[in-house]
Design goal:
331 residues; mainly alpha; two-stranded antiparallel ribbon
Length: 331
């Protein structure tokens, strides 16, 4: 029962966190995060309960409160089955939340706790984490796609291709290119598992948290804390797995401490591409969105800040709830 409560808190936090990222500007948009966020919902509303929107700070405060409560309940350092919540998953989520808050010390602390004594998946274990759903690899928490209709897999199968601007970031023998090409053609392979436990062709189990993200968060946070030695150790682990020790050492040796953050952020793009991070990484770092000329997108550039960095509140929600404040782009 307690484990179910802890897992439920993780789910609630993920919903609040993802919703506030989608419908509100990033935490650091205002100095005190007092800008408008989403409603904080901690119990099932009644038919006449129309919730107003809280500030982004209030949303994050609730997320942290729930995660800290979950940490008191979940005592297993890593779940036996990564489809279930664990203390490691709580620590990973806390690290991600603190990263967005730019609380560098806490982001580093919880990333280190999530890493614990585990090491990054290597070689085929890394690839099979995506291609073979029987392989855990470095996964901390992933969704179960059992009995789902496969829309996510279908989208990446037919519509989502790596851009040339992304592919040119990689060294030619980078192991991660195996997940971005198939038969010599550009293709995202992170959602096209071919080995599935129950033989459901359409099944896909998206990864929510994995060790690589924790290493990248630890590196970024350590850099902001002026702990360049620790930042180098964390990013080296990711680079070594990708291109080998010789090339990783050469790149880090040629990189000054001042240049190190740019290298860390570039590795984050390469490592976590197509996993739902890049857009939000751009907005939390207050950067503009720039698409390559060959993109099919009509809009090639959106400068930061922009009202278009958040979604409009759905019209049916505004009609149903008189207390729901629209976003600037509800026009």
């Amino acid at each position: 029962m307690q484990t179910d409560i802890g897992a439920g808190l993780i789910n609630t936090c993920m919903v609040h966190f993802d919703m506030v990222r989608v419908y509100a500007q990033p935490y650091n948009y205002t100095a005190d995060a007092s800008h408008i966020g989403i409603p904080v919902q901690i119990k099932s509303p009644g038919p006449d309960d129309n919730l107003a929107r809280n500030t982004v700070k209030e949303v994050y405060d609730q997320i942290l409160s729930d995660l800290n409560q979950a940490a008191q309940i979940l005592t297993d350092e890593a779940a036996t089955d990564v489809h279930y919540g664990s203390l490691q998953a709580v620590n990973a989520q806390l690290s991600r939340v603190y990263l967005y808050m730019e609380n560098w010390q806490q982001a580093l602390t919880y990333a280190q706790r999530a890493i614990g004594t585990q090491t990054l998946a290597q070689a085929d274990d890394y690839i099979n984490m995506f291609m073979n759903l029987n392989t855990r690899g470095e996964t901390i928490l992933r969704l179960s796609g059992k009995d789902i209709n496969g829309k996510l897999k279908g989208f990446y199968e037919s519509e989502c291709l790596p851009a040339d601007t992304l592919l040119t970031l990689f060294d030619t023998d980078d192991i991660r290119l195996r997940l971005l090409r198939s038969g010599g053609e550009k293709k995202c392979m992170k959602y096209t598992a071919t080995t599935i436990p129950d033989n459901q062709d359409k099944r896909e189990d998206p990864i929510l948290f994995r060790l690589s993200e924790m290493y990248l968060t630890a590196a970024e946070a350590a850099w902001h804390l002026n702990n360049y030695t620790e930042a180098r150790l964390h990013i080296k682990a990711v680079m070594e797995r990708a291109v080998g020790t010789v090339k990783a050492d050469a790149a880090l040796t040629a990189c000054t401490d001042a240049e190190l953050l740019e290298l860390i952020l570039k590795e984050r793009v390469k490592e976590l591409c197509f996993e739902g991070h890049n857009f939000f990484d751009l907005t939390r770092r207050k950067q503009s969105i720039v698409r390559e000329a060959a993109s099919n997108a009509t809009v090639k550039r959106i400068n930061y800040p922009s009202k278009y960095f958040v979604l409009p509140i759905p019209r049916y929600e505004l009609n149903a709830n008189g207390r729901m404040q629209p976003n600037e782009n509800n026009d």
